[in-house]
Amino acid sequence: MRRLTSGSLALLLLLVPLIWGQEVNGNDGRPTCRRCNLHHCCNCSHSGFTRVPVVTHQALRLDLSFNNITNMTKDDLMGHSRLRALDLHANGLADIHPSAFDSLWSLEELDLSDNQLTVLNPKWLKNLAILEHLNLLNNPYSRLGSPSMFFGLVRLRRLMFGGPALKELRRTDVFGVTELEDLTVHANNLASYDSGTLGDIWPLGCVTLSLHGPFLTNVALAAAVLADVSYPETPIVLKDLHLIGNQSVLPFRESAKKRIRSLSFRNFSVSDATLVDFLMVLNGDPLSYLHVEDVTLKGEGRWEKANKTDYKSIDQFFLRNAVVVDVYKFVSFLQLGFLLYYPRKVSIINCGVFVMPCETSKLLVNLQYLDLSDNLLTDLTIAESLCHGAPTLKELRVLNISGNPLKSLSMISHLVTNLLKLTHLDISRTLYSSMPSSCSWPSTLKYLNISRAKLKATTTSCLPRSLEVLDLSYNDLKGFSLDLPLLRELYLSGNKFLGLPAGQHFPNLQTLTMQFNTLNMFGLPDLKSFGRLENLQAGYNKFICTCDFVNFLQSQLKQNGNVKLTDRKDGYVCDSPLHLHGKLVSQVRLSVEVCHRVLFVSVSCGVALLVGLLLCVLLWRLHVFWYLKMTWAWLKAKRSSQKQRRATADSEALLSFDAFVSYSERDAGWVESFLIPELEEPRNSDSEDGSSSTSSSRPLSLCLHKRDFLPGHPIMDNIMNAIEHSRRTIFVLSENFVQSDWCRYELDFSHFWLFEAGGDAAILILLE
Known about the structure:
The chain is of the alpha/beta class. The longest helix is centred in the last third of the chain and has 25 residues, at 597-621.
């Protein structure tokens, strides 16, 4: 066995990492990542790298998140002057060389979140003058450090910092930050804050604060932070709050003084008394947007005192994912109904609402948008909420009651008939199983969503003709034959359609979605029937890959037609025939034999016929047919002769003639006038002394076709019998003999007989 050289061993060591999806660079042992697309975006996340990998210097975006890179040297990113975005999220990164980012002059986004950075070094960012987005969240540093690491970042617009370990914020920590579009601060355990630290940032866009600890134990600190970021134009988002007692709402007085207009709560809990105190604090303020999400209500819903507050300025009220701790003691949300009297947009999502009394609905005079999705509304309670079809909610334009256990489509159509300004209705994810033959709808309705219900069979005239957008996705429909002249978008994915709906029903349709049905195929005539169709999604169906369909679809996938297939190419997969099952239509290549079977068979038969004709002509020219006939006749005669020889003891008894004379009819004169008399008539022989003798030689018995052939027998049989029953065959050769077919037959038969009988069986006479 050949010994490994040192070079071979080195090559083997380089190939080992490739087995694990990495490639080692031969210079310094660093891994190489080659997962970059045509836009120079390199996704090297979740790859198990322990060092910064080598990537192309043309990279514009580099994602190194979710690896195991614990430290960065000054050379790891050397040469990446074109890099615009760097993501080092969730690496366990603990040590970064002060000059690690010096060559990243074009960097605009940097994510260092969820690592192990205990100290933030201002030198990291000294050359990142055009940095716009910086994320330092959830690292174990206790302070930002001094001098400010943001000094010189004049283009910084999005800043996120903080984490569980952040304890203090000093006035100098954010020097250099002049204006931000988005500020996120996680300071749940903040213990020290210099007033005005965040106050110098102006203008300030959206602010997200996590101040769980300060709101519980240091309300003065929480108030100072809120005072610095509260502006009328700045939306404030507060996360992870636990409001208990009057003291916990005092910081909101600072926001009230600044007359904030947008306030959001996410992941917080509140008691009855604290909620009332909160509403009292912001009473009369120009709050126009109130957003509450993931709230836990630790009370019984007794908020009577809050009824006297003034919230006429609220324009949008959003409540989602409300959880009542003691649901059996909880009264209802009705005592907060005053918050809904004035807003134009109200969303109460997944809050266990089972009814909104009609009396409350009558007070919603400004309501234009109502979202009651994912609640417990039934047909009876929705009837009460919509006042049994009475003309309330006169300004309502959008109604979303999806995700409720509704069963009667005819009832909901009746309830919204008098909503004369309603344009959008979402009743998806309900329990509708059938569609009545007719329904009444407001003439203004343009958007209808009944997706993910349980509708079966086919559509009916229940659907309004005024629709411009219709979503019937993920039902159990098999047919669609309703005329909708104004429809522009139709979504039918997830049903059981065998083909595209007839296009003449939708003269203005521009977008059609038919994914996850049971379509077998469609063609250009189907698309042309729509007239104005521009976008089609028909992937993930059970396509039968015929030649016409494959050619058509491959052309459409190349965007060669007026209709664009806007879904992914890998969604178009052959289901049959069996040998193409699972193969992408775009990769199918069918042969001419399969695609043009009739033409192929016709051409093949034509070629075969032509070859046959040419072969027949060639065989005729070579007298093959004559030889075959001769062989067959000889075999028959030979078999007959053998039978006769077995029946006769003496073979000589079969010889009836001394010779068979073969000649051309044109030479008959010479044969009859000279040859026959010479051979058949007796001749006198002279003695040696010249005297005559009376004795004569025996005359020969000749077989002539004119005289001895049996009438009625085939001429071939006569020829064979004559040759077989004659001791010799005499051929009179002449030009006429050569031109005679029968003479040639007789000559060739004699050849066969020569091999059969042996000896000198032929006598040739050259006449010419």
